[in-house]
Amino acid sequence: MPKYIYQYENWTDFTWQNAVVDALLGEVRFLQGRVLGKVSSLCFSSKEEKNLETLTTDVMKSSEIEGEKLDYNQIRSSIARRLGIKTAGLVPSSRNVDGVVEMMLDATQKFQSPLTEERLFGWHSALFPWGYNETSNITVARYRTEEMYIVSGSIGNEKIHYEAVAAKDVKTEMDKFLSWFNDESITIDMVLRSAIAHLWFVSIHPFDDGNGRIARAISDMLLARSENSAERFYSLSNQILIHREGYYDILKKTQHSSGNITEWLVWFINTLGSALQETEDGMQNIVMKAVFWEKNRNVQINERQRLMINKLFDDFYGKLTTSKWAKMTECSTDTALRDINDLIGKGILIKDEAGGRSANYRLIW
Length: 365
Description:
Shape: globular
Strand order of the largest sheet: 1-2
Helix content: 55-70%
Strand content: under 5%
Mean pLDDT: 91
Number of strands: 4
Number of domains: 2
Largest sheet: 2 strands, antiparallel
CATH architecture of the largest domain: Orthogonal Bundle
Order of helices and strands: HHHHHEEHHHHHHHHHHEE
CATH superfamily of the largest domain: Fido-like domain
Distance between the termini: 62 Å
CATH class of the largest domain: Mainly Alpha
Low-confidence stretches: none
């Protein structure tokens, strides 16, 4: 069986093909600057809304990669409260939602602060506030003390995909990782450091659970450094979720390599490029939303209404009905109708007279 990457001497002296990586990196850095330039032209309230929307998506999608579905409205409300964004109709959020949000905001809002063992333990504790995951009790806010295997298949027919660094070596390996992470003399581009840190961290797999989510938070932290900005306008986790099978395949392939990580860097940079391109492609909608929200900045709009209005601009398919509103905002049809009628009264929605048997509504902007 081939050796794992960490079984080679000086395994973290990663190598890659500079010509291949640098060409892609230059393209993505150019796109990154172009997107941030366009976003910077938006008014404050529009940038605030886009930042809130992106952070919400990032938290939700990072959890979905691990098979955990969190409530969008709870995530959004939790982020809004912590960022001090005044918005009507915030819903209560559960402790596990608050924990994921706390980790992500600590990573992205305090992106210049050193990454320490204590900070990582705080993130891990936030992810698992009750000391267990959906299947078992886990060691929280400490490095794992048992061996870690990534397996698939039924009991008795398990297939081992990866065996992580031995438990006895985790502390030593993490000390080395954190020293590298915080070394300000390293001149590697921050986007590349984001990719390398992600791979390095998941290769160690220092915790019983939550390693993927923490690795993606670490990546986002370094991407924020690459832009010198706490505002987030694209979601890497959303693109990783879309290409989840490829994500796991390239990690597995790289973790069975001898230290040349070119293919991983190419995959990461291309995925980041897709996230940036998605934001740029949606700039017309972002501008339209900016105009709308600026026009209605003094109108009282609750969180359900805000969610649905944003969806009508972004990714709503078919016609808006009361039942769709109720399903998408997880409220009763009576509440949905009250929300809709309220927006009709405020001149934001209009009833479509050609709706047929079921009443349909459309946005006025």
